[in-house]
Design a protein that fits this description.
With 342 residues, this protein is α/β, with parallel strands linked by helices. It contains 10 helices and 15 strands. Helices cover 34% and strands 24% of the residues. This is Gfo/Idh/MocA family oxidoreductase.
């Protein structure tokens, strides 16, 4: 099969392109970026080809699937066009900046009959899949409460230009800051692990430390901390940050009736289970992918398989819509100082 990538920034360079290149069913990658030099550079790096207009990519009938790696404000434009051009689409998270934009993509999916998958990659780690298995088997009873975190030193260290001019800091392009960049991953993860949905939120947010290229505080939040309640009555906390300067934190702790499941809480052990009598069981699985430690996320392989076998994607557009809805209400709760029911 043949894949196309729209947007040739870091997420394309370090994740999508190398994973397509490594997949045995993908023969070629075609790149497009509004900056043609970026597309040409990735085409050379991954032995693919590039086009200078997005129309060339969309009109190429030999391309089976497209990764939408554009910035957040463009997802509803390019993913929609790609679907309606007869391509299967893997869209980066968040699916869009609003529920209305997300609905445009979901309508295009329905109209086209093509696959739409969203890159919520935390579902694909072996540790999170093992944790879901433990929860499902109720080895520790039901999950009662939880806390989850996702933070690192900020997107200006990750982006293609590695400067404070990054689009992540712009209100019109990223809209919801760290909540849409990192927070939405963990909301999707909680939904996935618990097979439950968050229905109430409260939060505090702020631009605590990040500045733009002029040295002014950024237009979006670099930290948000919230409390959450699910439909099944579980309660928890979540912290998302671009100011964890010492090291990345991507941990989740689940407190159950008969013990605790700690995920990515220790560097030497992806999962630690502590029973109510103090027994500790450690599962030596792979380390989680980080900005500084790029490993195969499994997302591209899963996307290719769902296309090959005509299966439902492991992260659907509806899944992504539900997570976006929570994130938007989280930011609204922080801005209004209210507890909000979703």
């Amino acid at each position: 099969m043949k894949a196309g990538i729209i947007g040739c920034g870091s997420i394309a360079k370090y994740r999508h392109a190398p994973e397509y290149k490594a997949n045995p069913y993908v023969d070629e990658i075609v790149f497009y970026d509004r900056n043609p030099e970026r597309a040409e550079a990735l085409a050379m790096l991954f032995e693919g080809s590039f086009v200078t207009t997005v129309e060339e990519l969309l009109q190429d009938t030999t391309i089976d699937m497209i990764s939408d790696c554009t910035s957040n404000e463009s997802h509803h434009v390019f993913s929609t066009k790609a679907l309606l051009s007869g391509k299967h689409v893997l869209c980066e998270k968040p699916i869009s900046l609003s529920l209305e934009q997300a609905a445009i993509i979901l309508d295009a999916e329905k109209q086209s009959g093509k696959k739409l998958m969203i890159d919520h990659n935390q579902r694909f780690t072996k540790a999170h899949q093992k944790a879901k298995e433990l929860i499902k088997r109720k080895e520790l009873g039901d999950v009662l409460t939880f806390k989850t975190s996702f933070g690192h030193k900020g997107p200006e260290h990750w982006g293609i230009n590695s400067t404070n001019s990054t689009w992540f800091f712009k209100k019109d392009r990223s809209s919801i800051g760290v909540a849409g960049d990192l927070g939405i991953h963990k909301i999707d993860l909680i939904h996935y692990l618990l097979e439950d949905e968050i229905e109430m939120v409260s939060a505090f947010q702020g631009s605590l430390d990040k500045v733009d290229e002029q040295g002014n505080p950024i237009e979006v939040c670099d930290n948000i901390v919230c409390t959450l309640k699910t439909k099944q009555g579980r309660i928890g906390t979540a912290s998302f940050s671009w100011t964890y300067y010492g090291e990345e934190d991507n941990s989740t702790i689940l407190y159950c009736q008969k013990g605790i499941i700690k995920i990515y809480h220790r560097h030497d052990c992806p999962i630690e289970v502590i029973t109510e009598n103090g027994e500790r069981n450690r599962y030596q699985l792979e380390s989680i992918q980080t900005n500084d430690n790029q490993t195969n996320s499994g997302v591209i392989d899963a996307f290719v398989e769902c296309v090959r076998n005509d299966e439902e994607p492991q992260v659907t557009g509806q899944d992504a819509w539900l997570s976006l809805r929570v994130i938007l209400k989280m930011v609204e709760a922080a801005e209004s100082n209210q507890v909000i029911t979703i």
